[in-house]
Design goal:
heterodimer, A: alpha+beta, Rossmann fold, Dna Ligase, domain 1, D-amino Acid Aminotransferase, Chain A, domain 1, 5 domains, 9-stranded antiparallel sheet, 8-stranded antiparallel sheet, 16 helices, B: alpha/beta, 7-stranded mixed sheet, 17% strand
């Protein structure tokens, strides 16, 4: 292998390049229009542009990806995860083009593509699987994933309904409505085993990972080893996984997923025939480079490792998403991306300062992975890194991650996939509001205004010879309004929040990026980043985003009553109304698609459509006005 | 540049006594400012608020750039008079959309913002500052017109307001009227004479005659809105260029108007390092003499005012009762003249004259730090021609065209006041420390002179001289002069631009220097520098 093309983007492309470089293998990236300036493009030796933005016309286009490989003279292709990684046709096409496909055989991929066939194979190999008797039952799509086409039925009556709904969803999402049922495990834990097979018939395991912290079937926090797995269970699990691999004549990196019930019984779920997102936790506890193993296996080398567990590793997936809004993916420019260096912490990021997160791809910004001698140690390091990180420009799930990692149930290892249903993610994911963040924003704001003053720049801030009280700045934090008043100077620094004076105040330093102040005898420092009216304040382990309200707003600048705005950025796929139409409350008016999900914008009240500002195909920003409805009761 | 930083003994009795006295004077000053800030008192303030209106200082706060400085001028005008202290008007230098402007704002809670002779004096002084320094003028209008009982003192000179406004406009100095309330009769010409007018909906009332007067004059029935409302002026008469839905909208539009002036200052910007002085300005309170018979070292003051305490002295060994030299304040180069021992002799007068000529040659603004008891008197000095030397200095000060800034930090007596650029010599700005005394001479001297003259008169007439009555009269005169020469009294008469806290001297001079550079800074040309 001389030159490796990575048919992927973001952190996984960078991850693969890193190992390839270390092994002396040249690297080739592919990139779509929105990714033209992405780090993964810059870090590859060569890159090929796949014109277009949607995954279908870029990273999922087999012909174009193969053409890129041929054009650059690559002799191997690594699919990463997602996109074409579990596409047997792609694997086959690579082989047909004379390229090494870094992954299992097309047959193995195909065999695992249907969950029904996979289950049958596992039964034959003696791997425990879930039966289909009794209730509750889980209806699943045979070719699905990500929770779509999945329904729980607790009674006979519910089953018919669940089957119908699941079928419909599966057909819509995967083009195949085949579904199957199996026993539903209450309070399940998700435990998976990393396996590796070589071309000489050897299949080994690299121990288990637990990925029970999920939201909407999407893994959020993963760790290795599992706190629920003792030596005996580990042996059984790993033996089952190796048996599964052998049954498939598995080559390369694979993951055998199990569901673990509270009694310690485990059942086969599926095999992922790719490198998993969460592979770094296995790397940290085994000291192995999984990508290196993949490449060596692909080159035909025999597996020659005797893995053993060292310490504990925990990974958190940092997503660009609005947790309180219901895990809505967010997009935009990342003004700052910084995870502080913490010993034992590894950051696999696809983005950096100034990167743009587009609506076209997965919103995972980075994986922050910590290793420690014990679970507690690793979790502590991970919290330190996440709590101290600065991600500015768009909402992220950072606070949710920190809250989960700090949660007593998590600390006790009492996990199951319902964790984020039991514990309100909105509460866990909302950055706690501390008035000092608003104070820091206000003080940094005044420093910035002084620094930008065109006249009298060196005159003391807000100086008055006839004292007139405090200077006031108002902010919006979430949907809460907060007013900060301040006066600095010889008479002593004074600060008020919402009209209440803070006591024992001293401002040691206030610059546009740093505020160092004492309140009630305690001195604290805040990092501030100001972008237009937005202030990002990091301090006390909290990252606050504050929108400064205009001091003198233009009277017409408020959004007209009856305006319906885009709940998130996306593209308009349907407009159901035209100007003059009468609408009733709840009637869908516009449908937006973002991140593969369709969001309907409905009328809030009955009225007449006064304005339609978008058309099908338009790309809109979150908050953009889509339709204006004159309410029947409104004054127009 | 050389650093000046003479030792100050902060443990000395003099220092402590000065500090205590200055703090008392500042407290007295603050008390009066409190009265000014309270406007027409709780009842009128409450009524004003109930009408949904902002107080005058709230309007100004919203108008100026956040965190910028506002230098209020003559805040204690009318102190010691029959009128409300403050003069029913607020004037000052503020930064609006990055432009230094003169702000003139009526105080509507004091007798409806009506004008009395002190209001007029303060208003005209603000225009003078706008004209000399080429600063755009923003009027915040809400005034019931003339305070009628005082109309006799007011009516004739008040015409100047409209004349000044239009002359400013003709000089290329923009004038803006933000009308928040009544602006009637003569007052209607303020928006009328300004280049830009903004009126607040259902608050602005701009007409020559209100409904009662119209009814009396012509029998016509009318109302405020149709005669002079914002909607009418914006849509019908065209007097309002902008219609504001409320006060904040009016202020927002005013800020936009200023931003759109695309104002360029004609003077150079700051060119020196504007670092803070090495010595602590706080110590100025202990340095400034409370007892003006005790001189103090002006270099100790300079060390607490100028950038980095850097001061290159000119003729350090000559005419040492006056300190002269070069420095910079907030980055602006200045020449400083400061009295060291009160009296001006011949050498001091000549030194000052040469120094002023040098500053004019290099277009450098001058700062006068006054603590002057006058030109020396006595046979030797008269015979040596002190009048001629004093005349040179006064001539130079009078004809110098670089901006002059004067701070009275102690005594300001006699012709010394003139030579050191007193008010009559048109400094661009003049401020006083609270311990300042301004008079033709010291109270004791003045009383003594009167006594001597009376004694001579008695002798000439052959009348016996009543020693007892003389002693009483001397004391009376001394007390009267003492009180009339106080800084508070002078500031009440608008003979300065305000009393300042000595610790703010650097800041106030920095703002003033920045303001004067809105205009060209050019010295007098024609002759070379005379070596006296």
């Amino acid at each position: 292998m001389r030159k490796l093309l990575v048919a992927n983007r973001g952190e996984i492309a960078r991850r693969v390049f890193r190992t390839a470089r270390a092994m002396g293998i040249a690297t080739v990236a592919v990139f779509s229009d929105p990714d033209a300036d992405a780090p993964h493009v810059r870090e590859a030796d060569e890159a090929v542009h796949l014109a277009g933005a949607t995954p279908a016309e870029t990273y999922l286009d087999i012909d174009r990806v193969l053409d890129a490989a041929i054009r650059t003279g690559a002799d191997a292709v690594h699919p990463g995860y997602g996109f074409l990684s579990e596409n047997a046709d792609f694997a086959r096409a690579c082989l047909a083009a004379g390229l090494t496909f870094v992954g299992p055989s097309p047959e193995a991929i195909e065999a695992m593509g249907s969950k029904i066939a996979a289950k049958e194979l596992m039964v034959a190999a003696g791997v425990p699987v879930l039966g289909a008797e009794g209730f509750p039952l889980l209806v699943k799509a045979a070719f699905g994933g990500g929770g779509r086409g999945m329904r729980i039925a607790r009674t006979e009556a519910e089953l018919a309904e669940a089957l119908a709904v699941a079928e419909r969803e599966a057909r819509a999402a995967f083009g195949d409505g085949t579904v199957f049922v199996e026993r539903y495990v209450e309070r399940p834990r998700h435990v998976e085993v990393q396996i590796f097979g070589d071309t000489h018939g050897k299949v080994i395991h690299l121990f288990e990972r637990e990925c029970s912290i999920q939201r909407r079937y999407q893994k959020v926090i993963e760790e290795a080893p599992s706190p629920a797995v003792g030596p005996e269970l580990r042996e059984a699990l790993c033996a089952a996984a190796v048996a599964a691999g052998r049954a498939l004549h598995y080559v390369g990196a694979g993951t055998v997923e199990f569901v673990l019930d509270p009694s310690g019984d485990f059942f086969f779920l599926e095999v992922n025939t790719r490198l998993q997102v969460e592979h770094p936790v296995t790397e940290l506890v085994t000291g192995l480079d999984l990508v290196e193993l993949q490449l060596r296996v692909a080159m035909g080398e025999p597996l020659d490792v005797e893995p053993w567990l060292r310490g504990h590793a925990v990974e958190a997936r940092l997503y660009a998403e609005d947790v309180p809004a219901g895990f809505v993916p967010t997009s935009g420019r990342i003004e700052r991306f910084l995870v502080p260096p913490v010993e034992g912490v590894r950051v696999d990021a696809g983005y950096e300062d100034g990167s743009t997160v587009s609506t076209f791809y997965d919103a995972m910004l980075a994986k922050v992975v910590a290793h420690g001698d014990t679970r507690e140690h690793a979790v502590g390091r991970l919290v330190e890194a996440l709590a101290g990180s600065h991600v500015h420009g768009l909402p992220t799930n950072r606070q949710l991650l920190v809250s989960v990692l700090r949660h007593p149930e998590f600390a006790a290892g009492r996990l199951d996939t319902g964790f984020l249903e039991r514990h309100d993610p909105v509460r866990l994911g909302t950055e706690p509001f501390d008035p000092l963040h608003a104070v820091a924003a206000a003080l940094a704001g005044q420093a910035a205004r002084r620094a930008a003053a065109v006249v009298q720049r060196t005159i003391p801030s807000g100086w008055r010879n006839v004292a007139t009280g405090l200077h006031r700045t108002r902010y919006l934090v979430g949907d809460r309004e907060v007013e900060v008043g301040y006066a600095l100077g010889r008479a002593g620094d004074r600060i008020e929040v919402d009209g209440t004076a803070l006591v024992d105040v001293r401002v040691w330093q206030a610059t546009p990026t740093l505020v160092d102040l004492t309140v009630e005898g305690v001195r604290r420092r805040f990092d501030v980043q100001l972008r237009g009216a937005t202030a990002h304040v990091d301090g006390l382990g909290v990252s606050a985003v504050l929108e400064e309200l205009e001091r003198l707003p233009e009277p017409g600048s408020r959004v007209a009553a009856g305006s319906l705005t885009a709940p998130l950025p996306g593209s308009v796929v349907a407009v159901h109304v035209a100007v003059g139409d009468e609408v009733v409350a709840g009637q869908p008016l516009v449908v937006l698609e973002a991140m593969k999900m369709q969001h309907s914008v409905a009328a809030v009240e009955a009225g007449t459509v006064a304005e339609v500002t978008v058309a099908v195909g338009d790309q809109v920003d979150g908050g953009a006005v889509l339709v204006v409805v004159d309410g029947a009761g409104g004054d127009g | 540049m050389a650093v000046v930083n003479p030792a100050v003994d902060t443990a000395s009795d003099t220092y402590r006594a000065n500090r205590e006295a200055l703090l008392d004077l500042l407290a007295e000053h603050d008390e009066q400012l409190e009265v000014v800030r309270a406007g027409g008192g709780p009842r009128y303030v409450e009524r004003h608020r109930q009408r949904g209106k902002l107080l005058v200082r709230e309007r100004i706060e919203a108008l100026v750039d956040p965190d910028s400085a506002f230098l209020e001028l003559s805040p204690l005008a009318a102190y010691g008079s029959q009128f409300h202290v403050g003069g029913s008007i607020v004037t000052g230098i503020g930064v609006i959309s990055g432009v230094e402007c003169v702000v003139i704002a009526h105080e509507p809670t004091v007798r409806g913002g009506s004008m009395n002779p002190y209001t007029l004096r303060k208003n005209l002084r603000a225009f003078e500052i706008a004209r000399a320094n080429r600063l755009p003028v923003v009027n915040l209008v809400e005034s019931g017109g003339a305070d009628l009982p005082t109309q006799a003192d007011l009516f004739v000179p008040a015409g100047n307001i409209f004349r000044e406004l239009t002359q400013l406009s003709a000089l290329g100095i923009p004038t803006i009227a933000l009308v928040f309330g009544s602006s009637t009769a003569g007052g209607a010409y303020v928006p009328g004479m300004c280049d830009h007018a903004v009126m607040v909906d259902r608050q602005a009332k701009v007409f020559l005659g209100g409904p009662p007067l119209v009814k009396m004059a012509t029998g016509e029935e009318s109302d405020d809105e149709s005669l002079g409302g914002a909607a009418m002026h914006a849509r019908v008469s065209g007097l309002a260029d902008h219609f504001a839905v409320d006060e904040l909208d009016c202020i927002r539009i005013g800020r936009e108007i200023v931003a759109d002036l695309d104002w360029r200052k004609l003077g150079p910007g700051p060119s020196r390092r504007p670092d803070e002085p090495l010595a602590d300005p706080e110590e100025l309170l202990g340095i400034a003499s409370a007892d003006l018979r005790v001189p103090f070292d002006p270099k100790a003051v300079i060390a607490r005012v100028v950038d980095g305490s850097r001061f290159d002295e000119y003729k350090a060994e000559y005419g040492t009762s006056l300190v002269t030299g070069w420095a910079s304040i907030h980055g602006y180069p200045v020449g400083i003249l400061a009295n060291a021992r009160g009296v001006l002799f011949m050498d001091e007068a000549e030194k000052a004259t040469e120094f002023i000529l040098l500053a004019n040659q290099t277009d450098t603004p001058l700062v006068f730090l006054q603590n002057v008891t006058g030109f020396m008197v006595g046979k030797d000095y008269e015979q040596a021609g002190i009048i001629k030397d004093g005349a040179k200095m006064i001539n130079a000060v009078a004809n110098s065209t670089v901006p002059h800034l004067t701070v009275i930090m102690g005594a300001s007596y006699g012709a010394g006041n003139y030579g050191m650029c007193g008010r009559a010599y048109d400094p661009r700005f003049l401020f006083a420390w609270p311990n300042a005394r301004i008079a033709v001479m010291g109270p004791q001297q003045l009383a003594g002179v009167l006594s001597i003259v009376a004694r001579q008169g008695a002798q000439a007439a052959g009348r016996p001289f009543d020693e007892e009555a003389d002693a009483i009269e001397r004391r009376r005169v001394e007390e009267q002069i003492e009180s009339e020469s106080r800084a508070l009294f002078m500031t009440g008469k608008v003979f300065d631009d305000g009393i300042i806290d000595p610790r703010d001297t650097r800041t106030v001079l920095g703002i003033a220097l920045s303001a004067v550079h809105s205009n060209r800074v050019e010295g007098r040309r024609g002759f070379g520098v005379f070596r006296m």
